[in-house]
Write a structure and sequence with these properties.
By secondary structure, the protein is α/β, with parallel strands linked by helices. It has a single domain (2-216, 301-405), classed as Glycosidases (TIM Barrel, Alpha-Beta Barrel). It contains 14 helices and twelve strands. The chain has helices spanning 16-19, 27-32, 47-60, 72-75, 84-99, 115-120, 128-143, 156-165, 176-203, 227-250, 274-279, 300-310, 329-348, 391-402, and strands at 2-3, 9-13, 65-69, 103-109, 149-154, 210-222, 257-267, 317-321, 353-359, 378-380, 387-389, 404-405. The strands form three sheets. Strands 2-3-4-5-6-7-8-9 form an eight-stranded parallel β-barrel, surrounded by six helices. It has a two-stranded antiparallel ribbon with strand order 1-12. Helix 10 links the parallel strand 6 (210-222) and strand 7. Helix 7 runs parallel beside helix 9 (176-203), helix 8 runs antiparallel to helix 9 (176-203) and helix 13 (329-348) packs parallel to helix 14 (391-402). 45% of the residues are buried.
Amino acid sequence: MLRFPQNFLWGAASSSHQVEGGNIHNDWWQWEQGASGRQKSGDACRHYRMFREDFDLAQSLGHNAHRFSIEWSRIEPEEGRTMDSEVGHYREVIRTLKERGIEPIVTLHHFTNPLWLAEKGGWLAPGAIESFLRYVRIIVEAYAEDVKYWVTVNEPMVYAHQSYVLGNWPPQEKSLRKGMKVAEVLRDAHIEAYRIIHALYKAKNLSSPMVTFAKNMRVFVPCNTALKNILSVYLKNFLFNFDFMGKAIKTKTLDFIGLNYYTRDLVEAGGWSPHRLLVDVCGKNHSTLEKNSLGWDIYPEGLLSLLLGLRKYNLPVCILENGICTPDDNRRWNFIYEHLKSVHAAIQKGVRVTGYMYWSLTDNFEWDKGFVPRFGLIDVDYKTCARTVRESARKFAAVCRANAFE
């Protein structure tokens, strides 16, 4: 029997735009309306109305933690105007979790921006950080008594890469320079938000919170031993995986490491330019590994190697996202099982892993990929929004309840 530490956090994750539905005041909603053939989030999973039912299911599955995000554009649909009714809604979300014995892990920014901020230039707009910090103060003032765990920003390097380098997401820029600048701004936003959160808790005479950002990490492997591929892997590993985190640690603005892990990338650089070295991956399908339905390599060993790489920081690590999209639920359980073996092995080697959040609790709107990828422990019928618990969820529930698995 493989046992986990006492008080280990077990649960699942979600984000507001992917599950709530009706987030009409953010940049993603507007972008979805802009091209024919692009799937729209619409009602998503109706979680905004059905959160109690979803948390009942999470409780029935033995979860003792849940990561979710607050939709900034609901709180502040117009610059400087706070919607008290929406502040009240998320207070009810948090208290509903706590009534069910589920620890809330609250994300403040999960990819979406209020439309008013996007129209000013998003994270590149003058005063963007100050706008974010105003929102942070509102939220933390409202919920500090009920929340211990805060995630300032989700996957800052993924956001910068997809939105400002590859141009797949709004605002669809294609500039390595802008992407690096956005990553820098998000780093500074995290640092300042961290300090504000701690100051507010101190002013309220509350126990210190646990604050982090969610860091997507990938394993990078060269396709072959060509020098440019080896250099590309080194640069990607440094800039994508560790640079942002290292700067946060240097400024003492991480209480724990929030890790998101899904896959590895084979790397084949098309040239020696900075853009080729930093952006290119293998496009020749050299990987022989099993893949999820989005074509991402399934590589549980990568989670172990990354966790061991984080050991040098001597901080607790909570896995905030790890999951698979697949129509085959047996593969979902196998994915969870193999990755939990990697987590346990890392703990045995001295990594202080404190929790595991599967992505995601329910099927949801997977950004530019729409509703086709199915990540959920719980199936969602998008016509009726009926929920059906998958068998993988029941097997994971047995692990959550036992805090151990065979």
